[in-house]
Amino acid sequence: MKKFLLVALLSIGMVGFAQNRPERERLTPEQRVEKQTERLTKELNLSSDQQKQVKDLLTSESAEMQKMRGERSDRASKPTAAEREVMKKQMTAAKEGHNAKMKTILTDDQYKKFVTNQEKSQERMRENVERRRSNSDGGDNTGMED
Fold it and tell me: Region Disordered: start and end of each range (predicted)?
């Protein structure tokens, strides 16, 4: 009975905690571009000319990404494995194109730092995905025994 009461109280507490989690801020594409430009300016110490070039690049790429997302969201069903593979190749090509354009804008040292920061960001995203998967696998993560 004590264990049941403890589990019930913990469950109620966790539900309350989960509901109080703040929602992520939804940014417009323009706000996202501005935020990315500011972040890159700080990280890479961009000149004003580089800032303008990066902002123009991010703006055009943002429009392309919105177009791609719009095409996908028009679908009523989930994409097939073949369609996902095509989308993955498109995203990879877009990223490679973006990096090539960034390389023309940035100095060699700035570009090296840009690539390093991208790799760190991707690693953090992978870790977050793994953490979410392990938390949602239905396993008992309370550490309590019967």
Answer: 41-86, 116-146
Closest C-alpha to 111, from 102, 120, 121: 102
pLDDT digits (tens, 9 = 90+) for 97-141: 999 999 999 999 999 999 999 999 999 999 999 988 888 765 454
Q: Angle at the Cα of 16 (from 15 to 21), degrees rounded to 5?
A: 100
DSSP 61-128: HHHHHHHHHHHHHT-SSPPPHHHHHHHHHHHHHHHHHHHHHHHHHS-HHHHHHHHHHHHHHHHHHHHH
User: How do residues 57-104 score in pLDDT, each as one tens digit?
Assistant: 999 988 888 887 777 766 677 888 888 898 889 888 988 999 999 999
Residue ranges of domains in the chain:
30-124
